[in-house]
Amino acid sequence: MSFKDQTIWITGASSGIGKALAIRFLREGAYVILSGRKVNQLTDVSEISKEHSLVLPFDTTDFDSLPDKVETAWNWRSGVDMLINNAGVSQRSFALDTKFEVYRQLIEIDYLAPVALTQLILPKMTARKKGHLAVVSSVAGKVGPPLRSGYSGAKHAIIGYFDCIRAELEEFFNIHVSTILPGSVRTNIAINSFAGDGSSRGKSDTNIENGMELDHAIDLIMDGLRNKRREINVSDGVELAAQNLRASDPEKLFKVTATEGFRLSQLRESEGPKVSMDPGDVRNFKV
After folding, report:
1. pLDDT tens for residues 4-54?
2. 112 DSSP 8-state letter
3. How far apart are CA 225 and CA 242, in angstroms?
4. How far is CA 162 from the centre of its chain?
5. Is-contact 150 196, C-beta < 8 A?
6. Any idea of the CA torsion for 144, 109, 91, 160, to the nearest 10 degrees?
7. Model pTM above 0.90
8. Which of the four, 8, 21, 156, 244, has the lowest number of CB atoms within 10 Å?
9. Under a CB-based contact definition with an 8 Å cutoff, are residues 196 and 209 in contact?
């Protein structure tokens, strides 16, 4: 399947996975709606093909602005063939050290924002009985690791929502629904993640630095979207094994994650709760 002349809307298109996807789609001849908060970075991406780009900046949690944004996106080329809900934020903090407001923000950004945007575009896609909806969740949406309680909770929730709308829309309305599950990919996700007090963590971690190359992750996502896969795994090694264990032997998985939680708790006790925790390299885990 070619994406040439398809209209693709990507949130969080100014950096990381979203930016890399936007570049790939533009190079394939798609028309791409570039959304995010950072106008200059979105404009830089649009330079690849200005005639094929619409820079549509907004904050995904500015819910009152979303209806107008949807109308602008839809009217640009008389429809949107694919919406990719990519914008999001991660977390690196013990639940013991995490303020409730951080949980609220994670739910708004990683769950409510993609739900709100999807709900607004659903009537338009179902009216013409075609379309493709995608969301970037995470391996943490299937497996609950330490230091991610709010992030993992939101990513679990968004999988549940998209699984349900797939059941409702796929057969009758011809709406394809894809859930994308990245593991550790070399982006700035850890640097930009929330600490327990809501501040930006400001540094990467071993998992991400030793993670999958971004280009390879984009290859896997593009292949999955091209083939309309319902679930697109973007992980390997222990992270992929952990997802398989969640289904086949959850008790073993829980033992693995508890062992890592114990190690990190020891560090917290010795270095204090304010330390910016590094979850370590998951490749060293034994599953």
Report:
1. 999 999 999 999 999 999 999 999 999 999 999 999 999 999 999 999 999
2. I
3. 23
4. 13
5. no
6. 10
7. yes
8. 244
9. no
Question: How far apart (Å, rounded) are the C-alpha atoms in residues 236 and 212?
Answer: 8
- 179 in helix, strand or coil? strand
- CA distances, 182 to each of 83, 122, 269 (Å): 18, 25, 31
3 state DSSP class of 202: coil
* Cα distances (angstroms) measured from residue 14 to each of 54, 88, 146, 269: 13, 12, 28, 38
Residue of 103, 111, 151, 161 with catalytic role? 151
* Predicted local distance difference test score (pLDDT) of residue 285: 57
| pLDDT at residue 282, rounded to an integer | 62
Q: What is the largest CA-CA distance in the chain?
A: 59
Q: What CA–CA distance (Å, rounded) separates 60 from 143?
A: 25
Neighbours of 143 (CB within 10 A): 24
238 and 260 in contact (C-beta within 8 Å)? no
**Count of positions (residues) in the chain:** 287
Dihedral, CA atoms, 97, 154, 81, 9, nearest 10 degrees? -10
94-111: burial string, b at 16+ Cβ within 10 Å, e else: beebbeeebbebbbbbbb
- Decide if 151 is catalytic: yes
d(CA 34, CA 55): 5
d(CA 250, CA 242): 9
Structure tokens at 185: 């990919």
Residue 285 in contact with residue 238, Cβ under 8 Å?
yes
What's CA 136's distance to the chain center, in Å? 3
Please report how many Cα atoms fall inside a 13 Å half-sphere around the Cα of residue 180, on the Cβ side.
30
